[in-house]
Write a structure and sequence with these properties.
This protein has about 120 residues and is mainly β. It is built from no helices and ten strands. It has a six-stranded antiparallel beta sheet, with no helix packed on it. Strands 4-9-6-7 form a four-stranded antiparallel beta sheet, with no helix packed on it. The radius of gyration is 14 Å and the shape is globular.
Amino acid sequence: MVRKNADAKYVQKKMFDGDGMAKMRLILETNEEMYNKGRVFNHLYLEPGCEVGWHIHHGDGETYYILNGQGEYNDNGTLVTVGPGDVTFVDDGEGHSLKNNGDETLEAIALILFK
């Protein structure tokens, strides 16, 4: 399979009552493309002030690989500044959020795998 850039699918939505709208490019579009081992493999875009609101994971874990920009990552109540090259992980039963507190688009790869 080859998915050409011109054919990429994007979705935009409010994420867990966070401020603003998150935009996501679907890298893999279905659970079947991930051999039913996960449910999200996206390129995430957060404009300044936008966020993925606080939420707790149940039955899965999520990794963010920060590509561009600066953000504030809430790691189970501990606030950490993240930037390009940083990796975050939240395990099953834990919570997190990510807010763009910089001046440029925060971009990250988001991967959610089932436990």
